[in-house]
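Supplementary Methods. Inverse-folding protocol.

Structures were first reduced to a C-alpha cell string of length 481. This string, shown here, constituted the complete conditioning input.
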C-alpha cells in the first residue's frame, strides 16, 4: 500500500475509533450522572479527576517515546515494551505512595482517600493498556488500537449497567471501571503476543536508564497538559466550602459536554496533521494555505456552537441530565465560551508541530496552566464553579493570544476580522431565532437554528467554494489544496 493511502486509511480508522469511543463514553457518563445524582456523581468525578493529575507518574512519557522508537525499528518492539511494562510495575508503587501522601496532606477524609486509591488502580491498568496501544500504532495497526479501545469502553458500559441494575453506589461503579481496565489489559496482552511479538520481560537496566532519560521531556509536557485539564476540580474541592460534592457534580456534568465537543478540532487535526508535516518540508505556501483554511473552517463551526449552547444551556442540561443538574446550565454557559479559543489551540499546535516547535507548545501550555491556577485561586472562593469556568476561558485565551502572536511574527499574519464578521452576522440571526422562540423543543431548535445559520452564511457569501471543497475533503479524510 502506498504511503499516502496508508495515511488516509490509518487516519480514517483512528478517527472513527476515537469518535465512536467518545460517543460511548459520553453516554456512559450521562448514565452514571443521572443514576448517582449530583452529590454522588461529584464524588465519583472527583476521584477520577484527582488521580488524573498524577497520571504522568505511571508513565513519565514512555508511551509516547516508544511509539516513535518502535516505529523506527519494529524488531525492537519486545525489548521496548518488556522494559516499559517492567518499569511501570515500579512506577505503580511510586504513584500509589505519592497520591496517598498528597491526599493526606490535603486532609481528605478516609473514605475519600479510599475511593481515590481505587481510581489510582484504574489509572494504572489504563496506563499499561496505553503503552501496548502505542505499539499497535507504531506498527500502523490502527484497527487493533481502535478495536481494543472500543471493546474496553463497551465492556465498561456493560459492567456499569450491571452496577446500576444492582443498585450499587458510586464505589461499585468505580470497581466496574477497574474490572473493565483489567479485562482490557488481558485482551490486549493476548492479542499482542499472538499477532505481533512475544514478551520476554528481560530487563536491561542500561537500556531502561536511557529510555527513562529520553522519555522525561515527553513526560514533562504531558504533566502540564494534564494539570491544565484536571486541576480545576481539585481546586474546587478545597476552595468551595459548602455543598462541595454537588458543586463538583454540576461542574463535571457541564465539562463532560464540553469535552464531547472536542471531537471537532481533534478530528480535523487528525485528518490534516500528516499533510501539514509533509507540507513544511516541501511547500511552505501549502502549509500556509492549510493553516488559513483550517482557521476559517473552525471559526465557521465554533461561533454557532458557542452562542447556541449558551442560549439553550438550560434545555440541554434538563434533557440530558434531568432537573437535579440544573445548576450545571450556569457552568455550561460559562465553559462554552472557551471553545471560541480552544478550537484554534489545535490549529496552532498543528502548525507549530509541523514546524518542529514542540517546545513552544509546551511553553504556551505552561503559561495557560499558570493563568488557570492563579485565576482559580482568586475566582473560585468568590464565584464557586462559575469562577472556575471564567478561569478556563481566560487560560484558553492566553494560549490563543500567544499562539497567534508567534505564528503572525514567524509564519503568517491572519486578518481575523476578515474571517469572523460574516459568521458573527449569521450567528446573530440564528441567536435571535433561538432566543425569541423558546417554546420550541430543543432538538427542533438545534436543527432549525443550524439551517438558519448556514443559510444566512451562504446568502452573505460567508462560505466560499474553497470552503466547500475543504469541508468535503476533510469528511473524506483528504485535505486537497
Amino acid at each position: 500500500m502506498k504511503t499516502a493511502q496508508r495515511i488516509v486509511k490509518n487516519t480514517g480508522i483512528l478517527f472513527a475509533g476515537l469518535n465512536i469511543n467518545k460517543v460511548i463514553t459520553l453516554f456512559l457518563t450521562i448514565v452514571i450522572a443521572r443514576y448517582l445524582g449530583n452529590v454522588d456523581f461529584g464524588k465519583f468525578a472527583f476521584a477520577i479527576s484527582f488521580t488524573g493529575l498524577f497520571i504522568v507518574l505511571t508513565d513519565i512519557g514512555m508511551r509516547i517515546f516508544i511509539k516513535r522508537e518502535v516505529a523506527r525499528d519494529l524488531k525492537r518492539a519486545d525489548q521496548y515494551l518488556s522494559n516499559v511494562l517492567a518499569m511501570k510495575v515500579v512506577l505503580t508503587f511510586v504513584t500509589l505512595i505519592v497520591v496517598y501522601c498528597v491526599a493526606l496532606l490535603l486532609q481528605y477524609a478516609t473514605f475519600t482517600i479510599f475511593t481515590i486509591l481505587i481510581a489510582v488502580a484504574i489509572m494504572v491498568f489504563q496506563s499499561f493498556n496505553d503503552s501496548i496501544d502505542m505499539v499497535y500504532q507504531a506498527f500502523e495497526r490502527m484497527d487493533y488500537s481502535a478495536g481494543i479501545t472500543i471493546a474496553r469502553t463497551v465492556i465498561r458500559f456493560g459492567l456499569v449497567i450491571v452496577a446500576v441494575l444492582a443498585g450499587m453506589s458510586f464505589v461499585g461503579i468505580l470497581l466496574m471501571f477497574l474490572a473493565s481496565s483489567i479485562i482490557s489489559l488481558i485482551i490486549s496482552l493476548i492479542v499482542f503476543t499472538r499477532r505481533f511479538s512475544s514478551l520476554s520481560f528481560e530487563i536491561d537496566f542500561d537500556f531502561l536508564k536511557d529510555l527513562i532519560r529520553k522519555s522525561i521531556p515527553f513526560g514533562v509536557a504531558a504533566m502540564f497538559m494534564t494539570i491544565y485539564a484536571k486541576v480545576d476540580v481539585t481546586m474546587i474541592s478545597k476552595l468551595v466550602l459548602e455543598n462541595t460534592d454537588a458543586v463538583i457534580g454540576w461542574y463535571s456534568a457541564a465539562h463532560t459536554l464540553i469535552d464531547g465537543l472536542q471531537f471537532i478540532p481533534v478530528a480535523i487535526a487528525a485528518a490534516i496533521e500528516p499533510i501539514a508535516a509533509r507540507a513544511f518540508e516541501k511547500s511552505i505556501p501549502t502549509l500556509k494555505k492549510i493553516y488559513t483554511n483550517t482557521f476559517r473552517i473552525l471559526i465557521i463551526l465554533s461561533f454557532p456552537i458557542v452562542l447556541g449552547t449558551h442560549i439553550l444551556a438550560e434545555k440541554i442540561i434538563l434533557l440530558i441530565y434531568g432537573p437535579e443538574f440544573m445548576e450545571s446550565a450556569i457552568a455550561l454557559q460559562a465553559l462554552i465560551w472557551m471553545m471560541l479559543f480552544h478550537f484554534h489551540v489545535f490549529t496552532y499546535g498543528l502548525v507549530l508541530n509541523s514546524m518542529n516547535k514542540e517546545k513552544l507548545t509546551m511553553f504556551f501550555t505552561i503559561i495557560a496552566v499558570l493563568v488557570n491556577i492563579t485565576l482559580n485561586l482568586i475566582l473560585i472562593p468568590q464565584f464557586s464553579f462559575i469562577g472556575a469556568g471564567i478561569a478556563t476561558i481566560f487560560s484558553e485565551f492566553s494560549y490563543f493570544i500567544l499562539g497567534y502572536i508567534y505564528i503572525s511574527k514567524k509564519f503568517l499574519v491572519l486578518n481575523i476580522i476578515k474571517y469572523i464578521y460574516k459568521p458573527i452576522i449569521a450567528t446573530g440571526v440564528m441567536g435571535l431565532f433561538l432566543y425569541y422562540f423558546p417554546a420550541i423543543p430543543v432538538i427542533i431548535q438545534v436543527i432549525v437554528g443550524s439551517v438558519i445559520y448556514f443559510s444566512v452564511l451562504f446568502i452573505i457569501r460567508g462560505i466560499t467554494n474553497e470552503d466547500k471543497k475543504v469541508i468535503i475533503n476533510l469528511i473524506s479524510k483528504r485535505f486537497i489544496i
